[in-house]
Design a protein that fits this description.
Elements: H1 3-26, H2 29-36, H3 40-46, H4 50-73, H5 79-91, H6 104-112, H7 117-143, H8 153-174, H9 177-192
Length: about 200
């Protein structure tokens, strides 16, 4: 890896938690300099704008979440257990190498829906990718007769995502992690009902 590539990776790694906790609008170039120990010129020598850093930071945070889910799924032998990984990971994300600030999809979606079209596109792509992964798992489970037939895989996948993200949002806003736990119990019940 070249020195420029290492510097760019360093900037992304150090600024990703800042964007995920403070949001795009709440993160200043001074925050980025403080997080990296680099000057504004050094940061902009590697990225054309704060937007470019924010997009790279989102991708970095999303990859961290996907790596956790993939790692946990690799330990599972059934589709049901793979689906339940989402409950375990999002209910206990503080036990995993999850991004500081929580779910980057939720954090970015709530801020960027009307204010930052490129971040909105990234969050949209992340949700669609997650939905497609869930649909694929559900369809695989039906095909292997692990899950019952006549499941609307897309509707179920969207409902799982909505419940997980909604539970996280409610817990964040109220400061009550018990609300997230209650929603995750509902997600688990929904998934177990697919058998």
């Amino acid at each position: 890896m070249s020195k420029a590539a290492r510097t760019k990776a360093f900037i992304i790694e150090k600024t990703a938690p800042v964007f995920n906790t403070k949001g795009y609008a709440g993160t200043s170039i001074n925050d980025l300099s403080e997080a990296t120990g680099l000057t504004k010129g050094s940061i902009y020598g590697n990225f054309t704008s704060k937007d470019d850093v924010a997009l790279a930071a989102f991708d970095y945070n999303l990859q961290k979440v996907q790596n956790v889910v993939k790692s946990e799924m690799s330990k599972c032998t059934t589709v049901l257990d793979q689906l339940l990984v989402y409950v375990n990971v999002y209910d206990n994300f503080e036990k995993f190498p999850f991004p500081l600030g929580g779910c980057p999809i939720l954090n970015t979606s709530t801020e960027a829906d009307d204010t930052h079209p490129e971040l909105r596109k990234r969050a949209n792509a992340a949700i669609l990718s997650w939905k497609n992964a869930l649909v694929g798992l559900i369809e695989k489970g039906v095909k292997m007769k692990e899950l019952r037939a006549q499941i609307d895989a897309e509707q179920t996948a969207v409902a799982i995502i909505a419940l997980i993200e909604g539970g996280i949002m409610i817990a964040k806003v109220t400061g009550k992690s018990s609300f997230r736990k209650a929603v995750m119990q509902s997600v688990e019940k929904m998934i177990r009902g697919l058998v």
